[in-house]
Amino acid sequence: MESSPMDIDRDGEAIAELMRRVLFEVKRVVVGQDHFLERVMVAMLAQGHLLVEGVPGLAKTLTVKTLARTIRGSFKRIQFTPDLVPADLIGTRIWNQRTGEFATSLGPVFTNLLLADEINRAPAKVQSALLEVMQERQVTIAGQAHHVPEPFLVMATQNPIETEGTYPLPEAQVDRFMMKVVVGYPSDEEEFVIVQRVTGPEIAVGSVCSTEQLGALQRQCRRIYVDPSLIQHAVRLVAATREPARFGLADQARFVTFGASPRATIALIEGARALACLRGRRYVLPEDLTDLVPDVLRHRIVLSYEALAEGVDADALVRRIMKQLPAPEKPLESHVDLAEQA
C-alpha cells in the first residue's frame, strides 16, 4: 500500500522505507551499480542534476527509465548529436495555417526525468539551451516563460573513451550538475546475472509512489538537521580547492587553475541531507557529507597544465584535501533534539 504525502510529512522514517521500495523495484531490473543508484536517489531527493561518465552498455539509460516507472513520472531521452539545435530541446514557435496564429510546440525537456545521452557531442549553443532549464526549471520561447514539470531531474551521460566529434562542456553548465558519478564495469558475478536477466523473460516494474509523493519527500528532506560544524567543514573543503596554500596544501596549489564555486558547498549540504534521509536519520552525520565530497567536487575543479602533465587528476586532489581537513566530531543527538525544539 502506498504512503500518502501527509503520512510522509509526519513520519520521517517513511522516507527511508519508501525510497527502499523504489530502490528494490529498480534493482529488480538493474544489476549492481549500487553507488550509482544511491547517487541517483540522492539527486532526486535533493532536486539536483547528475552527470554520469561511463562507457556504453552500463545500464545508465535503463536505470533512469526504470526509475521513471517506479515514481509514475514521465521520461524522455535526447540523443545529443553535432547537428542538434536548441529548438530540438526546448521547443519553438510554429505557424498554424488553419488558425492563422503562432502556436508553441514544447520540446522534450518538459518531462520529469530527462536523459541527455552523450551530452558532450552537441555544440555550445545547444549546451546553453540547457542552462536556464537546469537552474530555473523553466525555458523561454519567444519571450514567454514555460515551467517544466515537478520534480525535474536531468541526468547527462558522457563517454570517456571517445574524443573525436565531442565538445568540452562549458564550465557554467558543468557547475549546474550537483554531482558527477563515474560508472565502472560490473564484476564477473554481476555480469552473469545481467546476461540472465536480459536474455530471460521481461520483468514488470511496479509503481511505488507518485510524483506528488516525491515532492513531499523532497520537502521533508529540507527539514533534516545539519549541525553548523558540518556546514563549516563543507565551506572549508570547498575553499581548499580555491586556495590550497591557505589550508596547508601549498604543494598542491600549482595543480589548480580554478576551484569549486559556492554551488559545491550548497550541493554538499543538500546531498548530505538526502543521504541521511535514505539512511533513515533525521540529522546529518559527518560520513553523509564525506561520502559525497568526491562526486560533488571532481567536475568543478579546473586543473592546470602542470597537473595534466604529471598525471594528477581531480579525484587525487580531493583525496589530499580530505586527508588534510578531517571531518568534525559527530553531533550529539541531544543537540539535534534542542535544535528541533528551537
Automatic annotation (TrEMBL):
Gene Ontology MF terms in the entry: ATP binding; ATP hydrolysis activity
Official protein name in the record: MoxR family ATPase
Boundaries of every ChlI/MoxR AAA lid domain copy: 254-321
InterPro entries to which the protein is assigned, alphabetical: ATPase_AAA-3, CbbQ/NirQ/NorQ/GpvN, ChlI/MoxR_AAA_lid, P-loop_NTPase
Gene3D superfamilies on file: Magnesium chelatase subunit I, C-Terminal domain (1.10.8.80), P-loop containing nucleotide triphosphate hydrolases (3.40.50.300)
PANTHER family, per the entry: MAGNESIUM-CHELATASE SUBUNIT CHLD, MOXR FAMILY PROTEIN
Pfam families referenced in this protein's UniProt entry, alphabetically: AAA_3, AAA_lid_2
Annotated family: Belongs to the MoxR family.
Keywords, alphabetical: ATP-binding, Nucleotide-binding
Domain ATPase AAA-3: 49-179
SUPFAM superfamilies named in the record: P-loop containing nucleoside triphosphate hydrolases
